[in-house]
C-alpha cells in the first residue's frame, strides 16, 4: 500500500557516499523531504541512514528509506521501481547522482573495457533509471516534478578544447569519463525537451571539483559544498525555468 507520508519523495542514487550522501543529508536535515537512499546493497543503505542519525539526532527517521539498486543491472533497477511503487505509489524527484571515474581506484586493462565500465554507470545507468522510474513520476500529483542529472565540467566540450583552462584536455585527458558526461549532457537535453509538455522538468547540474572517492578526495570543495547546487537543482525556484539548462558555479563561460 502507498505510504501515508505527505513529504515530497526524493530518490537519490549513490546515496551512501560522496555527493549522493551529502545531498541526502541536506534534504533530510531540512525536514521537508522523504529521502529514498538508493544504494548497491541494503547494508550500505542502512549504514548511511545510521550515519545520518548520528550526525543529526533530531532527524526524522520515518523520512528515510533504504533502497537496493545496482544501476548497471536492468533487473535490479526494475525491482527497485517495483519496491517504490508498492510502498509509495509514486515518486516526486529523481536525482541521478551515482557515477564512476574508472581510473580511481582501479583502471581496467583494455580500451574498450575502460569505456564500457564508465558508460555502464554514467550513461546507461542514468538512462535506464530515468525510463524505468518515469511511470512513478507520471503518477505523482506533485506540482514540480524533477529529474536531476549530476554531470561534470569535464564533460563540456568547450572546456576540453580551452587552452586557457586548467581542465584543457592536455592537462586532464580522462577521455572515458569526459565522454560519458558529455553523453549524459545530451541525454538530459533530449529528455528535457521530450518531457517538458508533461510538466516533468529535467535539469543538469555540475557540482564542481569536489573531494570524493571519485577523485581520491582531491577536489577543492567538500561534499557538503558540492551538494548545494544539486539540492538547488532539485528543489529551488521553478523547475519549468530550470529545465534543459546546465546549473553550475564554474566553467559556464565555455558552454556545454
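-> sequence recovered:
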Amino acid at each position: 500500500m502507498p505510504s501515508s507520508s505527505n513529504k515530497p519523495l526524493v530518490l537519490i542514487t549513490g546515496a551512501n557516499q560522496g555527493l549522493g550522501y551529502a545531498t541526502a543529508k541536506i534534504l533530510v536535515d531540512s525536514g521537508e523531504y522523504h529521502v529514498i537512499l538508493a544504494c548497491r546493497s541494503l547494508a550500505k543503505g542502512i549504514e548511511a541512514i545510521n550515519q545520518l542519525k548520528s550526525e543529526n539526532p533530531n532527524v526524522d527517521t520515518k523520512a528515510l528509506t533504504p533502497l537496493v539498486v545496482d544501476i548497471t543491472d536492468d533487473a535490479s533497477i526494475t525491482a527497485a521501481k517495483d519496491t517504490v511503487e508498492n510502498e509509495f505509489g509514486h515518486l516526486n524527484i529523481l536525482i541521478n547522482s551515482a557515477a564512476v571515474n574508472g581510473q580511481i581506484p582501479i583502471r581496467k586493462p583494455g580500451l574498450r573495457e575502460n569505456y564500457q565500465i564508465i558508460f555502464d554507470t554514467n550513461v546507461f545507468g542514468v538512462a535506464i533509471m530515468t525510463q524505468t522510474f518515469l511511470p512513478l513520476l507520471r503518477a505523482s500529483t506533485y506540482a514540480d516534478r524533477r529529474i536531476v542529472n549530476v554531470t561534470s565540467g569535464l564533460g563540456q566540450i568547450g572546456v576540453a578544447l580551452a587552452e586557457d583552462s586548467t581542465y584543457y584536455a592536455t592537462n586532464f585527458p580522462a577521455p572515458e569519463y569526459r565522454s560519458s558526461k558529455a553523453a549524459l549532457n545530451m541525454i538530459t537535453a533530449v529528455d528535457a525537451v521530450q518531457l517538458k509538455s508533461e510538466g516533468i522538468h529535467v535539469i543538469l547540474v555540475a557540482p564542481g571539483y569536489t573531494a570524493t572517492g571519485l577523485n581520491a578526495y582531491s577536489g577543492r570543495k567538500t561534499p557538503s559544498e558540492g551538494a548545494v547546487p544539486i539540492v538547488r537543482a532539485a528543489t529551488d525556484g521553478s523547475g519549468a525555468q530550470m529545465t534543459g539548462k546546465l546549473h553550475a558555479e564554474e566553467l559556464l563561460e565555455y558552454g556545454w
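The chain has eight helices and seven strands.
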